[in-house]
Every structure is written in C-alpha cells, then in structure tokens.
Amino acid sequence: DPLALRAVDSALLAADPTKGKSKLGANAILSVSMASAVAAANHLGVPLFEYIRTRVLEREPRYLQPVPMSNVINGGAHAGNDLAIQEFMILPVGASDIREAVRCLSEVYHVLGKNMIAKYGRMAKHVGDEGGYCGFGLKSTHDALEEIVRAISDAGYTPGEDVVLGIDAAASGFHKDGTYSIDGQEISAGELLDFYIELEKTFPLRTVEDPFDETAFEDFAEHAKKTKIQVVTDDLTVSNPDIVRRAVEMGAGNALLLKVNQIGSVTEAIDAASIANAAQWPIVVSHRSGETGDTFIADLAVALGCGQIKTGAPARSDRVEKYNRLLEIYDLLGGDCGYPGHDFRTAWRNY
User: Fold this and answer.
1) Residue 55 to residues 34, 40, 142: CA-CA distances in angstroms?
2) How high is the pLDDT of residue 78?
3) What are the residue ranges spanned by the domains of the chain?
4) Active site includes 119?
C-alpha cells in the first residue's frame, strides 16, 4: 500500500537487512520509496509536499519555504582548479519570500560571472559539478570570498544584510596523514579551525559544512564550541540515524545535511532529521554533486519545514529544476508560506 510509506520502506528494508543495503542496493530501494510517495500523492490528488507533511509526518499543513544555499564557485574535487574548498555559496537572507530569493541569487550569480571573465578571462566562467563557476585564476579561499562579496555589492545588494556566505569545505578531500593542504599550506586541525574562525571574522560567513575530515568527530565538536555560526555535518554523518545520534551526543557539529540517497529510503532520512531536530539541530535538505532533473528534494524541504535547501547554482537544468519547483510550490500555496530569512537556523522550530 503506497499510501503507507513507512510500511513500504519497512518491507524494503526487511527484504535487504544488510548494513550497506548491498542485497537490493540503496539506489533501488530509494527509487521505490520515492516512487511510492509520489504515487500516494497522485492517488490522493495532493502535491507531494502536502502528502509528506500531513500523511507521513502527520503534521499540520503549515509550510515554510527554505532559504537556498546557492553554489556560485566550485573548487576541490568538483572543479579542477587551485581551490581546496569544494563549494562557495550565497544565502539570500534579506529576501521576503522564495521569489525574491531566487531573483537575488540569480542576479548575484550572473554578476559574478561577468566579473570573473573581466578579471580572469573566459575560462573562469566554466562551471563545476553543481553549476558554480570553476574560477580558474582564483588562488585562495580569500580570493574566492572576496570576489563573491564584490559581486553581491555590484548586483545592488548588501553583504551580510541581504546576502550571507556559506562554504562546503569537504575537508576530507584535502586531508592526508593528519594534515590539511589548503591555500598552499600544510596545516593541522587546530590551525585549520583558526583559519575558519578568521574567515568568519573577515567575511559574512554564516555556515560551514564538513570543515574537517569525515572521521574527525572531536574536531567538529571543537569547532561547534568555538563558533556561533552553523557547522553542518555531511560526510561525518551521511544521513544515517545511528551516526547522527552519535554526532549529536558528542556535539560534533550543530546542523545536519540531509541527503535521501545517502541513507537509502525516505522514512530513514526523515528519522535522521527527527533525531537532529530533537537536539535542536537545523536541517539542510541537499542535492548531490551528480544530479538529475528530479525535484523530490524541493518538496521534501517544504514538507519538513526545515528552512534550508542546498541545490546548486541557478544554472544547469538538474539544478534549476529544483528552484522552479520551489517557485511552483509558492504559487500552489498562494504565497501562504513562510520564508526564514536571517532566521534560517531557527525558523523551523515554529513549523
């Protein structure tokens, strides 16, 4: 019965009790799980986000649109340039609704592209896996953040008020034998933490994802203690409820990145989110570096009322489709939905 999504997922997991879902495969299980949710929504004649919200989560139909974390410069393994940091993002927190947010991030993105061409040549405008500019010519983290801040201003917005910054360090990608290679330096975890704190003081940086190696629970915890910004766990927790529980208990981070295809079923992802929320951790629903045009995560973010979504640049159809779906959801709701703005870390508590 696809109307009972948890029962569907439970049956799938019973058919494949292996730890890594190696019998049926996580992708196969997730495909059936997502298809069941879509089928149920279609059968009931309601949008997917409403089905998940009211039938799976059993919550009141009150909706919060997410603040997009929009990738504008790619680095690390996703771009092939000199930048160690994998994603440089903007968050349009000064917008009043998702329509203004998408307009803002699109304007900043295109101004940044023009600035990059003018300063570094046409190669700088090539895009990486998530649609952010590759930024050939940028030599350091500071270079990238400075260009983004300049683009925000050039687009007519105020850095720190209308738009704030985020990064996905994906630090496992530049970690080896206990040291981190970044901006031409080999540094320790403690020195890397000092580096992040300096960035927070220099730029309107409000969220940092995977700042340390994916096994470094203690370093994540130290970062969360020493900063007031959002420290997001992705590679550390991989949307696994058991690992999320461990991270919460250790204080290893203070926010969860949620990728449904990491854990392998919709309800398991929801369970991971519930554990994080119970600890007052916010959730960031996220795409993957390899994406399709499917828009399930847009509906999931609205259904959860999590207040944050990470879905790439306003470029490439696989990323743009998610933004289009968020705009469509806004219209379906007749604009009767919240937008967190500067409260992107806490607004979910009211939904």
Assistant:
1) 14, 10, 46
2) 61
3) 5-45, 67-350
4) no
Nearest-angstrom CA–CA distance, 86 and 105: 19
Question: pLDDT confidence of 250, banded at 50, 70, 90?
Answer: very high
Which are the contacts of 315, defined by CB distance < 8 A and separation ≥ 6?
A: 109, 127, 131
Q: Where are the beta strands (DSSP E) in 210-246?
A: 230-233
pLDDT tens-digit series, residues 154-178: 999 999 999 999 999 999 999 999 9
Q: What is the DSSP letter of 55?
A: I
| DSSP character at residue 66 | P
pLDDT the model gives residue 79: 66
Residues with Cβ within 8 Å of 285's Cβ and at least 6 positions away in sequence, in order, are: 66, 258, 297, 300, 301, 304, 306, 308, 309, 310
- 179: which strand partners? 176
Active-site residue identified among 259, 268, 291, 322: 259
Q: Which of 107, 130, 268, 291 is catalytic?
A: 130
Residues in Cβ contact with 134 at an 8 Å cutoff, skipping those fewer than 6 apart = 73, 74, 79, 80, 81, 123, 124, 125, 126, 127, 128
pLDDT in tens, 88-128: 999 999 999 999 999 999 999 999 999 999 999 988 888 98
* Residue located via tokens 């703005």: 341
Neighbouring CB atoms inside 10 A of 247's CB total 25
- pTM of the predicted model as reported, rounded to 2 decimal places: 0.96
Distance, CA of 86 to CA of 71 (rounded, Å): 10
191 catalytic? Reply is no
d(CA 299, CA 329): 8
Q: What integer is the mean pLDDT of 45-58?
A: 98
CATH number for the 67-350 domain, one of 3.30.70.330, 3.20.20.120, 3.90.105.10, 3.40.50.300? Answer: 3.20.20.120
